[in-house]
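Hi support team,

I'm filing this because I wasn't sure whether my run with zinc ion finished correctly. The job status page said complete, but I'd like someone to confirm that the output block is well-formed before I use it downstream. Pasting the exact inputs I used:
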Amino acid sequence: MRRYGRSFPMIRSLLTLLAGCWVVLSPCCARADAIEKVNADGVALTFDACETRTASRFDEKILSYLIEQKIPFTVFMTGRFANRNRKRLQEISRLPFVEIENHSFNHRQHMERLTADEIRKEAQDLDELMMEMIGRKTKFFRFPAGNYDRKTLRAIEDLHYKVVSWTYPSGDPDKSITPSRLTDWTLSKTRTGDILIFHINGRGYGTGEALPSIIRNLQGKGLKFIKLEDGNI
Ligand SMILES: [Zn+2]
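And here is everything the job wrote out:
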């Protein structure tokens, strides 16, 4: 009995150590980084709908084209933009090829500077607004300005979100990029599995003009567009 008595604390500390390693090595579903590619034969066309200081509306040139052509796409939505564009958002959310996802409520440019509670609140507030407005929960999250660190990523993943970034930046918020440069750049970079990023809030200055040609050309190369939820990510 004395032998067991001595070995129990050892076994207990060994188990505690193993449990500690398990927590460190196997956090449930956590990823080392944000998702930059889909695992499917397709390209995910994503748009950010941010509003910070000035009022922003949906870029109808982009939106009407995508709807008319029934091209699957994803919009990452923020709170103020959603409130300002409520009616249009509700209309497009009924289309089966449109996906509305979470870009945080307040679009704080540096979410890595927030506390874990504040980070979670940013995602939860937007999610609640989407439930109220369009009756759907969000499942993918994109950080404002793409700024995050390990702690920020983990806080969002703890809410069961998949954090989505992009494969390469289109650069469309840059006013000096002409539609033809944007088209050439996008066509030279895009491969199957890519997650494209543009802006649908009026800050993608050449996007509306460039998009039909970008889409036609990519389709001509045999690429098809998919929603993130069909991307096996
Ligand atoms: Zn944004």
